[in-house]
Design a protein that fits this description.
By secondary structure, the protein is an all-alpha fold. It is 48% helix and 0% strand. The protein starts with 15 loop residues before the first helix and ends in a 29-residue tail after the last helix.
């Protein structure tokens, strides 16, 4: 009978809350840059206006793509807690009664 493999705490994947928070920070940073591009549109003269305008138009697309990309930085596959393990009882003997 083989012994079940144990997992080290360092090989566990990031928790869903931490992973979600990291994606929200990426999205908020991209939207902050977009707001800077929108404000820059009011102060940029001539054809240079296209640069911040393209940033303000294209950044939401890339922000959503970056926010929806899940990066799994985990180690090996982790078995779920409480998994059923094989158990064999000892045979009943007359001396134990």
């Amino acid at each position: 009978m083989s012994k079940p493999q144990s997992s080290a705490i360092t090989s566990l994947p990031t928790s869903p809350d931490e992973e979600r928070r990291a994606r929200m920070v990426k999205y908020a940073a991209a939207m902050g840059v977009r707001m800077v591009c929108i404000v820059a549109c009011f102060f940029t003269p001539g054809w240079w206006l296209l640069v911040p305008a393209l940033g303000a138009i294209a950044l939401p697309y890339f922000a959503v793509i970056a926010a929806n990309t899940v990066v799994n930085k985990g180690g090996s596959r982790v078995e779920r807690p409480g998994a059923l393990l094989p158990y064999r009882t000892e045979p009943f003997s007359k001396d134990s009664v």
